[in-house]
Specification:
By secondary structure, this protein is of the alpha+beta class. Helices cover about 20% and strands about 40% of the residues. It has helices spanning about 5-20, 115-130, 130-135, and strands at about 35, 40-45, 55-65, 65-75, 80-85, 95-100, 105-110, 140, 140-145, 150-155, 160-165, 175, 180-185. The chain starts with a helix and ends with a strand.
């Protein structure tokens, strides 16, 4: 009889651990939070939390199982806003996404197979912000940075769901999401 109680307790502990691991990830109750994966959530940093102003102009290539799309992306960050605008290679406006730390607004036509507007901003923040700041707003995983500056977003179970690779000689950046979506940023001179 005494042997059965510890066995039942061990079985109950295993069952509870399995249920907890399968429980859905709850998003924090704040604006700008989005699920980037079934087991990972990210809350956008406010523009002020980005810690620096910057501007980038890139030729962007989006490759997915549906095909390839190219466009020009312009990013502007200051203490009040985080702005991403895109235009076709011929100069036609495509889309615009803006985040002021409280409200996200977007308009325009987004490329097929592109991540959602909030996910696009999250990807750019994962590329540009300080890892310590990012790890405060990642739920269900963490960001790692290696000696070369490449970044990996890992789930708590160790699986890598995003790799950000930098070519130091050209400034090109490649983001690979779950191996089926690739976004390449090639800096354009201003």
């Amino acid at each position: 009889m005494g042997f059965q109680k510890p066995w039942r307790l061990a079985l109950l502990c295993l069952l509870l651990a399995a249920l907890t691991a399968c429980a859905p990830l709850t998003l924090p109750d704040r604006s700008g939070c989005e699920r980037l994966h079934a087991r990972l959530a990210y809350c956008l940093l406010t523009p002020a939390e980005m810690g620096r102003s910057l501007e980038r102009l890139d030729r962007v290539q989006l490759r997915s199982p549906a095909g390839r799309q190219d466009f020009i992306g312009q990013l502007a960050v200051d203490e009040k806003r985080f702005l991403l605008a895109a235009q076709s290679l011929t100069g036609m406006a495509l889309f615009r996404v803006e985040w002021d730390g409280e409200q996200l607004s977007s308009r325009g036509r987004f490329p097929d197979e592109a991540p959602e507007p909030i996910q696009l901003l999250a990807l750019l923040q994962l590329l540009l912000a300080e890892p310590e700041d990012l790890n405060r707003v990642i739920y269900g995983g963490h960001l790692e940075v290696d000696e070369q500056g490449d970044r990996r977003l890992r789930l708590d179970n160790g699986r890598v769901i995003l790799r950000i690779l930098r070519a130091s000689d050209t400034g090109m950046i490649e983001m690979i999401m779950d191996e089926d979506i690739r976004i390449t940023l090639e800096p354009l001179s201003s």
